[in-house]
């Protein structure tokens, strides 16, 4: 190495790397509310539309729960009613971020039951369920985020 060239001292390099990592971390943290909202909206839409489809033709829904979906421990009528109710109510809570973790947990149960109860599930369909489950797990772990009714209520409650 040429003696006229000076290398950045190790402490300066460490400070530069640490500063860059801190800025990246802050930037990613700033994106978290938007990412959590996007996950909530995406998953809620999938399940809500599925619930609307079941509601539109109730006879077919009950027939599907009788012939195709084999939900353990429940009669087809009860399973159809519970599944449809969950697919319609829980997404609304999830979008609002009201009881966000509860809604994510409930939709996770609906998701797992759907995978277990279908006799045959194609690989692409299974991958969709895994993706939805991953988004729901993230919402379970981190909550609905700052852009939610949960966050607003918590801040309001802590101010008292």
Model description:
This protein has helices at residues 10-56, 58-67, 76-96, 100-117, 123-142, 149-159. With 160 residues, it is an all-alpha fold. The chain has one domain. The termini are far apart. The relative contact order is 0.13. The mean pLDDT is 93.
Fill in the keyword field for this structure:
160 residues; mainly alpha; single chain; 6 helices
SSE arrangement, N to C: HHHHHH
Question: How many strand units?
Answer: 0
Query: How much of the polypeptide forms β-strand, as a percent range?
Result: under 5%
Number of helices: 6
Integer count of domains: 1
Rg result: 23 Å
Mean pLDDT: 93
Topology:
Elements: H1 10-56, H2 58-67, H3 76-96, H4 100-117, H5 123-142, H6 149-159
Helix pairs in contact: 1-3, 1-5, 2-3, 3-4, 4-5
How would you briefly describe this protein structure?
With 160 residues, this protein is mainly alpha-helical. The chain has helices spanning 10-56, 58-67, 76-96, 100-117, 123-142, 149-159. The protein has one domain.
